[in-house]
Amino acid sequence: MSNNLLKGKKGIISGALDQNSIAWKIAERACEQGAAFTLTNAPIAMRMGELNKLGEKVNAEIIPADATSMKDLETLFNKSMEVLGGKVDFLLHSIGMSPNVRKGRAYNDLNYDWFQKTLDVSALSFHKMMQTAEKLDAINDGGSVLGLSYIAAQRTFPDYADMAQAKALLESIARSYGYRLGVNKKIRVNTISQSPTMTTAGSGVPGFEVFFDYADKMSPLGNADAESCADYCIVMFSDLTRMVTMQNLMHDGGFSTSGITETMVKELANK
């Protein structure tokens, strides 16, 4: 259902890969709510995914960009402003990748070159996006910037490895840059800490299905799915949340504040 929460707004949505991607759902919702935007992802990711299908569906131009490249980001913002006819009102960072996780490296046997790649792709790219946007004056006053995070930034989870540090850095950048952009341009910067979600990237983490089930049983509302995360992001892009900034917002069905649930008590008692 559309109530035009984003009517007249323009944006950039990064990170959509296929129909399982949270960014894909956000793009669909943004279109439904009246926004115009461009889509972007790294060229290598675009070859693996189905971004062209999404672009056709939401009538969005696709601008390939490596989010770790300042040159690519300058092109992304300049071309987006050209295509959209002006500055953007919202920006989504939905980017994360760990070579160590992908290749199954244990936390006590990390490849440090890969670790640096994890931080660059998954967190420093968030800073690079905002720094580039600020220098190009590419975001309208009162705009909204969002990064997608995970509770591993605060708590330890086996097999999440160096991605935990990347998410902690992502959230720190949101606070530091949120202050700067808030003071100077009234632009909001927040992160959303999402439930474990059945995305292509998430399901690649070892033991993901077991933890997905555990988190669902530990959350009073159950796991938040990609569609509900998209709804939350739309609200954060809208003017309804113009006084919310520098926050890490938990979107996890209550998991982050649950000690234990009756469901888990019963399950453990029966073992």
Structure, described:
This protein has 271 residues and is α/β, with parallel strands linked by helices. It has a single domain, classed as NAD(P)-binding Rossmann-like Domain (Rossmann fold, 3-Layer(aba) Sandwich), CATH 3.40.50. It is built from 10 helices and 6 strands. It has helices at 22-32, 43-48, 51-58, 70-84, 99-102, 112-135, 163-185, 208-218, 226-237, 262-269; strands at 10-14, 36-40, 88-93, 139-149, 188-194, 248-251. Strands 2-1-3-4-5-6 form a 6-stranded parallel β-sheet, sandwiched between helices. Strand 4, helix 7 (163-185) and strand 5 form a beta-alpha-beta unit. Helix 1 crosses helix 9 (226-237), helix 4 (70-84) runs parallel beside helix 6 (112-135) and helix 6 runs parallel beside helix 7. The longest helix is centred in the middle third of the chain and has 24 residues, at 112-135. It is globular, with a radius of gyration of 18 Å. The protein starts with 9 loop residues before the first strand and ends with a helix. The mean pLDDT is 94.
- In the sheet with the most strands, the strands line up as 2-1-3-4-5-6
Roughly how many Å apart are the termini? Answer: 44 Å
Tell me the CATH topology.
Rossmann fold
Main sheet record: 6 strands, parallel
% residues in beta strands? 5-15%
Q: What is the CATH H-level superfamily?
A: NAD(P)-binding Rossmann-like Domain
CATH architect. name? 3-Layer(aba) Sandwich
Give a brief rundown of this model.
Helices cover 45% and strands 14% of the residues. The chain has 271 residues and is an alpha/beta fold.
